[in-house]
Amino acid sequence: MGCDAMVVTALDEIAWLLNIRGHDIPYGPFLKSYVIVSKDQLHLYTDSVKLSPDIRRHLHTDNCISAHCARLHDYEAIWIDLRTLSQIWQKVLIPSATEYNNGASRCIYILINTEKRKQAPSPIMYMMAEKNSVEKEGMRLSHIRDSAVMCNILAKLDEQFKNGQQLTELAVANMVDKYRGEQNFSRGVSFKSIVGYGPNGAIPHYTPSTSSSLKLDHISTLVIDSGSHYWDGTTDVTRTVHFGQPSAEQIEAYTRVLMASIDLASFTFPHHLRLNQIDVIARAPLWDFGYDYNHGTGHGIGVFLNVHEAPVNMYYGRKSSDVVLKEGYFISDEPGYYKENHFGVRLETILEVITKNETMGKYLTFMPITLVPFEPKLIDYYMLSPKQVRTVVQWLNAYNDKIRKMVGAELLKYNSSRLGYEWMMERTMPLFSDGRRNEVCTLVVAAVIVAIATVNLLTRYEKRMKRGSLITYITYK
């Protein structure tokens, strides 16, 4: 961009750039700070009391005299330093606003002389979006653990409802947050949990409060949209469930939304196709029947960073969606249907962008890393054409098989997850070509998974006994 320096104001970009995390912002692992990067220096402006000795060593803040360290300053010192330092620069890059970031404030903007300002989207956000091999593996592992938690949560809710326990939206939200907080490597929820029953489920970003929380019953759908931060990733998942016998209208809405979700997740496309073009693939099954939803189909997601991460924003007709995907990007797949004052349906799965083939140019596709079952009783295969049935059944069988192997093994690690395991197995039965469930195959697969998990557990026990210890302690600072 031909600039001598850049002011970094987005807290997630600072966290990623310096590889540090904090807790100054609700639902975000960020340190309140600014950074100025020039060709040979990096200046960090923050409350130095918050930096532990480990962080100081990591950033080499003490005796910083080279380009490979961070010069530490008081948070408020940026107002004087930026005006002074900018005098020696020809051009300074000032981040402009994006869909998920407001860009630099006017207070920062006016500190730099007019002729030296270069306002443009931050190049850091594109670097963040394209995850490296370590980040990709962390996202996959954190989503396996998180999917296991969701199976436990949904199984427990199902059991409580069957036992006649009175549930409310707020109680469910608190339960979701509690279960997530108990998970290994958890660092708190990534946003305020969205739990909407019946008419509240028709409000896309509704969150329950003491005054609005509805009691749950067997009449309508329940939408749960939640996520968590882990040391190795950030999650965001939405599933819609029903505790009774759903109506034909609810089943149709769910089936259409599931078709939209699968059509996007299984789509293969040339690498230069833009998000606002890809969005049409997800919405088409809903448009066919006069349905639509007034929100984006997908957003980017960070690695122990923001749950909504630029520059990915899939929403047709929006300028911010004029973006191409790259291998290593992660994006949500979350079509929905909302009948005002009645009920809502939304299904959200995080997808990893991967290369499909490069025979005649580069083609990309998606791999789901959220591994939470869909609700079989809300799916009507008779609504679909023979071709659609083949597509849905083939995709669901592959997806459910992956859930059984990966999430099943995770659930079997803990005795307390037996209920979640049984709930998961019930909802991931292999399907015949017409959508009927193959229950005999399910019993065989379940026995194999249990046998493998048992052998692995005994092997680990034997190895630890030989070492003379049954516990391995992992400490994070």
Structural class, from helix and strand content? alpha+beta
Output the CATH class name of the largest domain. Alpha Beta
| CATH architect. name of the largest domain | Alpha-Beta Complex
Helix tally?
A: 12
CATH superfamily of the largest domain: Creatinase/methionine aminopeptidase superfamily
Low-confidence stretches: 461-477
Tally of discrete structural domains: 3
Give the spatial strand order of the biggest sheet.
4-3-2-1-5-6
- Mass-distribution shape: globular
What's the rounded overall pLDDT mean?
Answer: 92
- Proportion of β residues? 15-25%
Q: Main β-sheet: number of strands, strand sense, barrel status?
A: 6 strands, mixed
Rg measurement, Å: 24 Å
CATH topology of the largest domain: Creatine Amidinohydrolase
Distance between the termini: 38 Å
Number of strands: 20
Roughly how much helix do the residues carry, as a percent range? 25-40%
Summary?
The chain has 477 residues and is an alpha+beta fold.
